[in-house]
Amino acid sequence: MASFIQLLISGLATGAIYALIAVGFTLLWQTSQTINFAQGEFVMLPAFFILASMNAGAPFWLAALIGIALSIVVLGLMFKLIIVDPMLKYGVLPLVISTIALSIFLKESAKDFYSSQAQPFPALVPATDVHVFDAVVSTQSLAVLAVAIVTVAALHLLLHTTRLGRSMQATAQNPTLARILGIRVQRMVLYTFLINGMLVAIASILISPIYLAKFTNGETLGLAAFLAAIIGGFNQVRGAILGGVILGILDNLSAAYISSQYRGAFPLLILIAIILWRPQGLLGRIEERTV
Amino acid sequence: MNRLGAIAVGVGTIFAIAAPFFLKPFGIYLISMWAVLTIAALGLNLTLGYAGQVSLAQGAFVGIGAYTVALLTQAGCPYVVAFVSASVLCFAIGWVLGYPALRVQHHYLAFVTLAFTTLVFLVLRNEEWLTNGIYGISGIARPIFFGWSTGKALDFYFFCLGTLAMLALATWWMLGSPWGRAFVALRENPIRALSLGVDTRRYTLMAFAIGSSLGGLSGALYAPLVQFIEPNSFALGMSFNLLLMVIVGGSGYFFGPFLGALVAVLLPEWMRITEGYYLLIYAMLIMVMMAFCPSGVLGLAERALKAMAQRDPSGPALRAGETPP
C-alpha cells in the first residue's frame, strides 16, 4: 500500500508536468489549428536558456525569470510570427512538416551551441523525504505538484473569469463570430502562443532537475503531450489536464506492476482505444467534420 | 507540360542509370538508399497524396518488411519468397490499420498511425527472442538471382533501381485505372464519392494496404542494402522523414516522392561540409521551403510553368483540369 501511494504521488507529479505541456498544445490547436510537433523541444529549450543565464552569473531565481521571458519571446512570439503565420493559409500538413523540421532545428541548436552532454539542473527545493502515512514522498514531487496546480489554477481563472479569457475562448470556438463581436482575434491568438511559451518554460523548470537538461529530452515529452491531449480531448483545456494526469499515473503504475519493458505501450493502447471509441477524447466536444 | 514531363523523366532515367559509374562506393550506397526510400515514399504518396489519408506509419512498415526479409533469409528462405512475404504481410497489416481511418480523419489518423509506429518499435526492441532487441540483426546477405550476385554495391544499386522502376510502373498503371480515380475521389470529396457509388470503405482500406505493402517492399530492399538493422532505424524519425519526402517533393504528384527522397537523402550529406551544423541547416531549409512552396518542389515547378504560359500567350498553355504527370 505504501509503495502504491508513493507511485501514485510521483505519477501525479509527472502527470502534472505532462498536463502543463498538453494544455499549451491544445491551446495552440484550438486557436490556430497548429499541431505543434516541436512542443517537446519547446520544453527542452528553456532549461538551456536558464543554464546559459546562470553561466553568465545570474542567481537561479533571476535566471528562471530570464528563461521564462526568453521562452515567451522566442517560443511564443517568434514562433508565431516566423513559422506559423506565413504557413497558416496552406492548411495543416505543411505546418506539421515545418514544426517537425523546427524540432530538429531546436534539438541541434541546443546540441551545437550548448552541449551534447546531460547538464545538471538546480532543483526548486532541497531534496528530502516527507512521510505521508507510511509512504515516503520526496519534497520534489510535492513542489512540482504545487507549482503545476498553481499554474493551472491561474490559467483557469484567466480563461474563465476575466474578459480577456472569455475573448480567447470565443476566438477558439468561433473566430468569425468572435471577430463580428469586436474581439481582436489575431491578438487573442497571439496571447495563446505567449501563454504556451510560459507553460513550456514552467514545465521545463519542473522537469529538468529530474531528467537533467539534455537536448534529446523533447522526444519523450512531446509524445507524452500528444497522448495526454488526445486521451483527454483535443479541444478542451481540462481534457488535457485529465489526460496528462492519467498518463503520468498510468506510466508509473504499469511500469511497477505490469511490465517495465512495455511501459511505453500502455498509453499508446489507450490512445488507440480512445480514438476508436471516443475520438473527441474523454472530455472533448465533437468537432464539425471538415470535408 | 506533358512533353516537358516526358523529357524530364527521360533525363532523370538516364541520369539514374549513368550516375553510379561516376560515384565512389559511398555515393552508390546513397543513391541505392534513394531508390529504396523512394519506393516507401511512393507508397505513402498513394495513401496520403492520392487517397488523402494522413499516415505516420510508413517507417514502421519499412521496418516490418526489413525484419521479415532479414529473419526469413537467415532461416534459409530464398530471397524471392522473403520479398513476397514482406509485401503480403505489410499488405495485411496495412489493411487492418486502415480500419481506424474509416472512423477518424486528419490529425486523429496521424496520431493513431503515430501510436502504431511506436508500438511496432517497442515490439522490435523488446521481443529479443525474435528480433534480437537493441543489438539488431547483422550480416544480412544480398540476394543472388540465377547466378547474378548483387553482393557488390553497383549490382545491388541496379537491383534496387530495377525494382523501383517496376513498382513505379505498376503504381502509375494503377493510378490511371478506376482504382486510382477512386483514390482521388476519396481525397477530394468522400461524401460525393460515396454518392457516386464508389465503395469508399473498400478503397480507404485498399489505399492503406497498397501503400503499406510498398513500404514493406522498400524494407525488403533496405535490409540487404544496409546489411544491419536495428529497431531505432524504424522509430518515428523514419516515418517523419518519409512524410517529409512526400510533402517536400509534392504530395499528390506522381514524381514528387522521387524528388523528395532525393532532397531528404542527399541534402543532409551535402551539408556535411558544414561540419556539425548540417542537420541544423537542413532543418532550416525545410522550414523555408515549406513557407515558400508548401505544395513541394513539383508544385513550385507547376506554378512557375503556369506563370510562364500566362505571360507568353503563344506558348503552350495548360488545359484546364490537366493533371501533372
Report on the structure:
- The complex is a heterodimer of chains A (291) and B (325).
- Helices cover 74% and strands 3% of the residues of chain A.
- By secondary structure, chain A is an all-alpha fold.
- A two-stranded antiparallel sheet of chain A has the order 1-2.
- In chain A, helix 5 (139-161) packs across helix 6 (163-173) and helix 5 (139-161) runs antiparallel to helix 8 (185-211).
- Chain B has one domain (2-311): ABC transporter involved in vitamin B12 uptake, BtuC.
- Helices cover 73% and strands 2% of the residues of chain B.
- Chain B is built from 14 helices and four strands.
- In chain B, strand 2 (144-145) and strand 3 (148-149) form a beta hairpin.
- In chain B, helix 3 (58-74) packs antiparallel against helix 4, helix 4 (79-103) packs antiparallel against helix 10 and helix 11 (236-249) packs across helix 12.
- Chain B is globular, with a radius of gyration of 20 Å.
- The chains are: A mainly alpha (291), B mainly alpha (325).
- The A-B interface holds A 35, 83, 86-87, 90-98, 100-102, 104-105, 108-109, 112, 223, 226-227, 230, 234, 261-262, 264-265, 268-269, 271-272, 275-276, 279, 289-291 and B 54, 100, 103-108, 110-112, 114-116, 118-119, 122, 126, 189-191, 236, 240, 243-244, 247-248, 251, 276-277, 279-280, 282-284, 286-287, 290-291, 294.
What's a quick, concise take on this entry?
The complex is a heterodimer of chains A (291) and B (325). Chain A is 74% helix and 3% strand.
